[in-house]
Specification:
single chain; alpha/beta; Immunoglobulin-like; 5 domains; five-stranded parallel β-sheet; about 25% helix; elongated
C-alpha cells in the first residue's frame, strides 16, 4: 500500500486532541457524609465505573474518526504484490488489437474483433486525459508508430479492420516496448486483446521485463470449428493441353465436430469443371481428387472452393499453371557423332522440346544458362573448361547426362565424374548381356509402366564400362544388366540430377537407341529436370520466384501484375547464372491471380493465397496462460479473466491500484455515528 499524498500523515497528531480533552475534562466528585453510608457507597462505586467505560468508548470512537479522516486525505492505494510501483503522473499506454483472420470468429457478444475494439475503448476510458495512447495491430502501419490523445485513440480503434497480416506476439510486444521507450514517461503499460491462438501467441518466448506492465485480455469464441482448403498438387509434373489431369487437394477440419457431407468445386478459367464430395472427421484432414481435361494451351488459372462459416478467408484456394512448357535441351556431340543421331532426332520431332546442338570442339557455353538438360553424347574427353561450366550448371539445379565414348579418355572422364559424385569408368566389358532388371521402386519411371511383364523384351548390350562405386557415393541404379552391372543410373548433387550411361549409345554397343525404352527414358530425364513451380504462393510474405534468364531483355525489369490490373509492382530481382530470382518483399498482400510480365510478354502465371496459419483456431485457455506466467516467473504480466462485462474498473485497479479513500470516509462517518450513539443512549 502507498499514499498519493503522504504529507497529510502529519495530521495524525490531531488524535492527541480528544486524548487531552479526556484527561483534563474529567468529572469531580464531592464527598457527602451520612450516618449510614453502606448503600450510598455501593451506588457511588457502580455509577463511577459506568461513566468511566462510556468515556473510554467515546475517546476511542473520536480517535478512530480523526485517524480515518486523515487517511482519507492521504488517499491510500493498494497494489497487487507483483505490481512494480512507479512514479505518478502521465502514463504511456500501448494497446494491441489482434485483427488477424481468426478474430472473425464469434461468441454470444458478437465477432471477436468488435469485442476487442469495445474492450480497447474501455481501457482508454480508464485513464486520464493527460495520458498518451498507442494503438497497434498486426498491420504495423506508420500510424501505429505515434502517440494519440484519449479522444484520437478511440477514433483509431474504430478504424481497425480484419487483416491478412499475422504476427507472433513476441514481435508485437517488442515493437510496443521499443516505441514506449522513446517516450520520457516512466509509467508504461501494455495491453493485448487477442484470441491467443496457440500458433501465434508465443507468450513463453517473450523476455521477462519488469519495467513495462503487461495486461492480457484473452477473448474466447463460442466454438473452435473451421474447415478449409490447405494445398493442392498435380500427380504429374507436366500439364499439357488435351491430356487428362489429376489434381489433389487437402481439406482440413480444425474443430470438434465431424463433417459428414461436404463438397468442393473446381473452377478453371472462370468455369466450374468438376466437383468432389467428401467427409472429414474432427481434427483431421482428407485428401480429395479432381479429374479433368486441360482444354487450354498456355496459362490456366483455377481455384478450389468450399463453403464454411464464420471463418471464410480460407474457403477458396487459387492456383495457376502453364500447359505450354518447353524443355530446353543442350546436346553436345562427340567428334565422330552425326548431328542427326537418335538423340537429336528424338527432340527435334517434338514441339515440347527446344534443342540446341553443338560439337565438342565448338560449344557455346552461353546456351547452358537457358538450358534445363545438358546431354554429353560420346565426347572423347571432358575438358576442364567444360567441367567448370557443368559445375555451375548443376549448382543451379540443372540436369546432366553422361554418355561415354568407346574411345573415351578415362582419366578426364573419371576426374569429372568424381566431382559430380558419379562412379568411375574402369574398363570395357565386351560381353553380350541383356538388361535384366528395371528398378521400378525408383521414382524415375513413375507413371511410365502400368505393370511390367516378366517376358518383357529389354535392351541388349555388347560393350559397356564397368563402374567403380564407393560406399560414400549415392548412386542409384535404374537399369541393371544380367551380371549385376549398371547400364543407367543417377546421382543427386545438391538440387541437380546427374545421369550416367555405362555404354555408348550406338549400334555397335547396344540396341538401346532403337528400343521402346529409349524414348520414355530421355523423356523422363527431361521431365524430371523441370524445376518444380509452386501452384500458389502466400500473400503478404517475401517469397522468391525464379524465372529463366532472358539475356535479350536484361535491361527490362520484370513486373508482377494482377490479372485484373489493380496491382502492378516491380520486384527486387537478382540474376544468378541461368535464372533470375524475384523477391516480392511483402508487396503482394491480396489473394488472386497474377503474372510475371516483361516487354508485354507473360513469362509465368502466379496465384496467391492467404496463409493458412490463421486457420488453426486452437487457442490457449486461461489455465494455460496462468501456467506460462507462473513457470516463466513473469512478475509484470497480469491477466484479466472476466471480459463479459465492462473492464474499466479492472483496468483502473490494475493500472492505478485499489483506491481506499472512499472506505476511510465511510469509516470516519461510522465512528462519528458510534460516538453520537454512545453519548445519547449510554447513560
Amino acid at each position: 500500500m502507498m499514499f498519493v499524498y503522504p504529507a497529510f500523515l502529519w495530521a495524525l497528531a490531531a488524535v492527541t486532541i480528544p486524548i487531552l480533552i479526556h484527561l483534563f475534562n474529567f468529572r469531580r466528585y464531592k464527598k457527602v457524609y451520612f450516618t449510614n453510608v453502606k448503600f450510598l457507597k455501593e451506588l457511588q462505586h457502580q455509577s463511577k465505573s459506568k461513566s468511566r467505560l462510556r468515556e473510554i468508548l467515546v475517546l476511542i470512537a473520536r480517535c478512530l474518526a480523526i485517524a480515518c479522516l486523515v487517511m482519507a486525505f492521504c488517499q491510500p492505494v493498494l497494489f497487487d504484490k507483483n505490481t512494480v510501483i512507479t512514479n505518478t503522473g502521465a502514463k504511456a499506454i500501448s494497446i494491441y488489437i489482434d485483427n488477424s483472420f481468426s478474430m472473425e470468429n464469434v461468441n454470444k457478444q458478437g465477432p471477436l474483433l468488435e469485442i476487442a475494439k469495445s474492450k480497447a475503448k474501455e481501457i482508454i476510458k480508464a485513464f486520464g486525459n493527460g495520458d498518451k495512447f498507442q494503438i497497434i495491430t498486426n498491420d504495423f502501419e506508420g500510424k501505429h508508430q505515434r502517440f494519440n490523445s484519449k479522444e484520437d485513440a478511440v477514433n483509431v480503434v474504430d478504424e481497425v479492420k480484419i487483416s491478412s497480416a499475422t504476427r507472433l506476439y513476441s514481435d508485437v510486444l517488442k515493437r510496443q516496448t521499443e516505441f514506449l521507450n522513446t517516450s520520457n514517461l516512466n509509467d508504461q503499460k501494455v495491453y493485448a486483446l487477442s484470441d491467443v491462438q496457440e500458433t501465434t501467441f508465443n507468450l513463453a518466448a517473450i523476455q521477462n521485463d519488469t519495467v513495462v506492465k503487461i495486461t492480457l485480455v484473452p477473448l474466447k469464441a463460442n466454438e473452435v470449428n473451421n474447415i478449409y482448403i490447405d494445398t493442392c498438387w498435380f500427380e504429374t509434373p507436366l500439364q499439357q493441353k488435351g491430356f487428362i489431369q489429376k489434381l489433389h487437394a487437402n481439406v482440413i477440419n480444425y474443430g470438434n465436430t465431424n463433417l459428414e457431407i461436404g463438397s468442393a468445386k473446381l473452377f478453371l478459367n472462370k468455369q466450374q469443371i468438376a466437383i468432389s464430395s467428401f467427409s472429414v472427421e474432427a481434427n483431421s484432414k482428407k485428401e480429395i481428387q479432381f479429374t479433368f481435361e486441360c482444354k487450354k494451351e498456355g496459362i490456366n488459372y483455377g481455384s478450389i472452393k468450399i463453403e464454411d462459416f464464420p471463418i471464410t478467408f480460407d474457403d477458396e484456394l487459387f492456383f495457376a499453371f502453364n500447359s505450354k512448357v518447353n524443355v530446353s535441351v543442350c546436346l553436345v556431340n562427340g567428334k565422330d557423332q552425326s548431328l542427326d543421331n537418335p538423340i537429336a532426332t528424338l527432340f527435334k520431332t517434338d514441339s515440347l522440346f527446344k534443342l540446341n546442338s553443338f560439337l565438342e570442339q565448338a560449344i557455346d557455353f552461353s546456351a547452358f544458362k537457358t538450358s534445363d538438360v545438358i546431354i554429353l553424347n560420346q565426347l572423347g574427353e571432358l575438358s576442364s573448361g567444360l567441367m567448370a561450366e557443368l559445375l555451375k550448371f548443376t549448382g543451379n539445379g540443372g540436369s546432366v547426362v553422361f554418355i561415354p565414348s568407346q574411345t573415351a579418355n578415362l582419366t578426364s572422364y573419371n576426374q569429372s565424374l568424381s566431382m559430380l559424385q558419379l562412379p568411375n569408368l574402369i574398363s570395357a566389358d565386351t560381353s553380350h548381356l541383356k538388361v535384366d532388371k528395371i528398378e521400378l521402386a525408383s521414382k524415375f519411371y513413375a507413371g511410365v509402366f502400368e505393370k511390367v511383364n516378366d517376358r518383357l523384351n529389354l535392351p541388349l548390350v555388347a560393350n559397356h564400362y564397368k563402374l567403380a562405386k564407393t560406399n560414400k557415393m549415392d548412386f542409384e541404379t535404374i537399369l541393371m544388366l544380367q551380371n549385376g552391372d549398371a547400364l543407367f543410373g543417377l546421382s543427386k548433387k545438391d538440387n541437380a540430377s546427374v545421369y550416367l550411361f555405362s555404354a555408348p549409345l550406338n549400334e555397335k554397343c547396344t540396341n538401346f537407341p532403337k528400343h521402346a525404352l529409349f524414348v520414355p527414358t530421355f523423356y523422363q530425364v527431361c521431365f524430371n529436370s523441370l524445376r518444380s513451380v509452386p501452384l500458389s504462393y502466400h500473400a503478404s510474405s517475401n517469397i522468391v520466384i525464379t524465372i529463366k534468364n532472358d539475356l535479350a531483355s536484361i535491361d527490362q525489369p520484370p513486373h508482377i501484375k494482377q490479372v485484373n490490373g489493380l496491382l502492378d509492382i516491380i520486384p527486387e530481382s537478382r540474376a544468378l547464372n541461368n535464372g533470375v530470382s524475384l523477391y516480392t518483399q511483402h508487396q503482394v498482400n491480396v489473394p488472386g491471380f497474377f503474372e510475371v510480365v516483361r516487354n508485354n510478354q507473360v513469362l509465368l502465371p502466379l496465384a496467391f493465397n492467404y496463409s493458412r496459419k490463421e486457420s488453426d483456431l486452437k487457442c490457449m485457455v486461461q489455465e494455460q496462460l496462468k501456467k506460462v506466467i507462473a513457470d516463466k516467473g513473469f512478475k509484470n504480466i497480469k491477466l484479466i479473466e472476466d471480459t463479459s462485462s465492462d473492464i474499466t474498473g479492472q483496468v483502473q485497479q490494475g493500472a492505478e491500484g485499489k483506491k481506499l479513500w472512499k472506505i476511510f470516509i465511510i469509516l470516519t462517518l461510522l465512528f462519528i455515528g458510534i460516538e453520537i450513539a454512545l453519548l445519547r443512549f449510554l447513560k
